[in-house]
Amino acid sequence: MNLLEPIVAWQNDLAAIRRDFHMHPELGYEEFRTSDIVAAKLQEWGIEVHRGLAGTGVVGTIRGNLPGSRSLGLRADMDALPMDEVNTFEHASKNPGKMHGCGHDGHTTMLLAASRYLAQYRNFAGTVYVIFQPAEEGGGGAKRMVDEGLFDLFPMDAVFGMHNWPGMKVGQFAVASGPIMASSNTFKITIDGKGCHGGMPHMGIDPVMAAVQMAQSLQTIITRNRDPIDPAVISITQIHAGTADNVVPTEAILRGTVRTFTLETLDLIERRMEEISRHTAAAMGCEVNFEFRRLYPPTINHAAEAAFCTEVMRDMVGATNVNPEVKPSTGAEDFSFMLLEKAGAYIWAGNGSGDHRDAGHGMGPCMLHNGSYDFNDELLPVGATYWTQLALRWLAQPAA
């Protein structure tokens, strides 16, 4: 691997910073300690700091010493998950019910390392904006930063994101031209019937049977309405009804999630779900209330920027360690909101299989959103070098 020597030399310092973040996880919009440390580090390295976007967001501005007008943004997420950590090693979470189970502690540290390098050398033309975002885990922090003027206050030509990816070796990267993460959406369908004695069902209107029929019918959207080569998921994850064995309840509720890789398919699924819910309920003599919440749109990389990232990664680790057309994940990512506004790309960096974890890790796999997860500190100089080389090469291009 072609890593930047100064960043490699900072390995121990970076690991200490990352593990400190891991020990003190903070949930979305509560990253007060984390953002204080980020801002202090940036200021220590002579970087202009802006605070307050999306509450706890931090943006650093790093200007090169050479003349040039190009600019780009590099984004890292800072928040933890509302879950308990089962690891017992020294740097395990000290905050019950909060854990860096997705590696945002590592993302923040890698971007800090790149910021330090860029600020120390400044041998480039143009401007790098380093974006430390709150509330990726369901809080929509990226959208809030955009809505509060991120791209107006910091005009940039493109914006880039990165996520660690368990199962890929450290030193391996993946990207896709087009969708790389799915949209995230939730639904709640409330069916109102008429309660009665379970032994006299003809005296009521059974919402449970309507829910059963509805649950089966909704899957026909995937098998009969959706284009078979356009992946999508409808998962009914909850059905709630009744409190007693001999009572037909008055109400039944279905909840779940929908994932798609295009907005057009999402439009189709939402429309058909509402139609099927309404007509199925009517056929069973029930009333229905259909609620559909669009949380995160699909994360869709721009082709030119994805290709640019691929070349940077290949020069770092070799072509055999870069997958330029990885199969997308049905997980979701709010960096999607930034890509709706700006050209850019989102890539995955290998986090290993879990062998890096200190003694005292949980018995579960080292997968994202798992109580046994831990970020791989070997990735820190790799990700930081990628960020730095991406910025330097992007800014070295001729002005548009």
UniProtKB/TrEMBL annotation:
Mn(2+) binds at C102, H104, E137, H163, H369. The keyword Mitochondrion does not apply. Its cofactor is Mn(2+). Gene3D superfamilies: 3.30.70.360, Zn peptidases. GO terms for biological process: diaminopimelate biosynthetic process. The lineage of its organism: Bacteria, Pseudomonadati, Pseudomonadota, Betaproteobacteria, Burkholderiales. This is Amidohydrolase. The Mn(2+) ion enhances activity. CDD domains: M20_Acy1-like.
